[in-house]
Amino acid sequence: MSAKFIRKSLRELFYQKNNLNWGLFVFSLALLVGSSWIVTSAANHFLDIPPFENVARSASFFSLIGSITWVPVIEEMIFRKYLVSLLQKVFPWKISAGISSIVFAILHGQKNFLPFLINGLIYSWTMKKSGTIVMPILLHVSYNIVAVITQFTQ
């Protein structure tokens, strides 16, 4: 990652006024949560793959705070902003988004990587649709908040 690319990305994230489409945000968040629930339930029922590991209860306070603050920012900057942009020099956007999402899913290290793959595709789609990295970051933060709350209530 070049220093120029990082400066441009940080400027977009923190300094430029972004006109976010909140309808796109709500729709995408519902799609994220709904698809994860459906895929996880189906994998558990049909393939005997257990649901996500409940890491929230055993995680430290700081790792939970990280999962809903800086981790989504860094992941989205790496997988959506940098990797998709890099891959688009060789591949069309759809293939670039797919490869980035596959890597994103695999690196999460869960037995059922399909929800992470779908999430990566949705994050990529919302970045393309909104034209800014801010949208997938906000979605990722929101999704992680829902995941942490869900794990604490189980």
How would you summarize this macromolecular structure in one to three sentences?
The chain has helices spanning 3-14, 22-46, 61-67, 70-87, 93-107, 114-130, 134-153. It is mostly helical.
Query: Quick one: how many beta strands?
Result: 0
Q: What kind of sheet is the major sheet?
A: none
Number of helices: 7
Mean pLDDT: 82
Q: Between the first and last Cα atoms, what is the distance in angstroms?
A: 40 Å
The ordered H/E elements are HHHHHHH
What percent of residues are in strands? under 5%
As a percent range, the share of helical residues equals over 70%
Shape: globular
Can you offer a commentary on this structure?
The protein is an all-alpha fold and 154 residues long. Helix content is 74%, strand content 0%. It has 7 helices and no strands. The protein has helices at residues 3-14, 22-46, 61-67, 70-87, 93-107, 114-130, 134-153. Helix 5 (93-107) crosses helix 6. The longest helix has 25 residues, at 22-46. The mean pLDDT is 82.
Which key features would you list for this structure?
single chain; 154 residues; 7 helices; mainly alpha; 0% strand
Write the layout of secondary structure elements.
Layout lengths: L2 H12 L7 H25 L14 H7 L2 H18 L5 H15 L6 H17 L3 H20 L1
Helix pairs in contact: 2-6, 2-7, 4-5, 4-6, 4-7, 5-6, 6-7
